[in-house]
Amino acid sequence: MTFTLRSRQVYLPDGPRPATVTVHDGRIAAVGAVDAPCDGELRDLGDLVLLPGLVDTHVHVNEPGRTEWEGFATATRAAAAGGVTTIVDMPLNSLPPTTSVAALREKQAAATGQCFVDVGFWGGAIPGNAGDLPALHDAGVFGFKSFLVDSGVPEFPPLDRAGLAAAFAAVDALFIVHAEDPAQLRDAAASRAYADFLASRPPAAEVTAVGTALAVAEAANARVHILHLSAADALPLLRAAAAGGVRVSAETCPHYLTLDGLAVPDGATEFKCCPPIRDPANQDGLWAGLADGTISVIVSDHSPSTPHLKRRDSGDFAAAWGGIASLQLGLSAVWTAAQDRGFTLADVVRWMALGPADLVGLRRKGRIEPGADADLVAFAPDESFVVDGAALHHKHPVTPYAGTTLRGVVHTTWLRGARVGDTPHGTFLRREDDR
Q1: pTM over cut 0.85
Q2: Which residues contact residue 350 at a Cβ distance below 8 angstroms, ignoring those fewer than 6 apart?
């Protein structure tokens, strides 16, 4: 099928401009002038802008094993509704975790026929499985996640410094690290006060663990990516390491950029995540890290659970699951905050589409250019909406954004040229997949 989309603002890798985008057999065949002759049916988007589909490389789908928390059908439908056309699934909190080829195949079997967007997979590096990593890498995972602190689930234990070094030595791959140092954490007593939970996970825990990951990566000449950075105090370490030749990158998440840790109401456990949402001054530092390129990626860290595990009944922050569900809302949340700070939609596209695609080597994702997959989003940047949990496609409508007014509405999402609707047609992606 061939058709052409016309928009006054098409967000290309070199910036937005009026253009036509011709789609043929699921890929972008041409990008032309806005008044260029068109192949196939012409679809004029009017005042809507055309974005590349976002790429979210940090999503916990949890299926199989904990499908009551989230699943491939609900997570990928939410992704498409939020303008995300590619996700990379984390190796936990599924059962089994993706720490062997057999576990990867079990997860892919569970996902088959359920995916509304394209899906890739991370592998996991845990104590004792360094020997499994080469085969898992050859099977197509995009790299390996490890924790330096308790992950929250017993089947995915953390690595110590020696274990991290052993994993780095086992395979030449991208390693993504949850960087908090357990020695810097404090016991959190049962409490409905967010301040008590926040005090239990100070910035020093991230700074120390980031330093550990960087030192081990430098010694091994390994490629390391710091996950969900919440502590701006770690940015000088990252800048210095990159300047010194360490192959390092870093991401942050919408909740760290948009929510105020000093304003969380008592008992509002929907705000709990690890590492935590911090104060506005810290948030300013994270935006500065995006501005200077120290942080190059914004992803959701979509990590939902059941309302019971979030302790919606008791509001106890110490006992509540630490994860935020925001896969459907990330684009709008980030765009709202970015625009208020003087950033452009082109910046958001770089952080949420091109940057994540490049992180994992998906050369045909996250960009509008000839040869790329026709993953496209018709977006109204000036429209606003009030977040209603009942309108979310996540399995459980628990979100810290409930009742918040956000700017930016996704009108249509295309995956490889086909409009995403009620029939899933996502495919599995492999590392270095040219599709």
Answers
A1: yes
A2: none
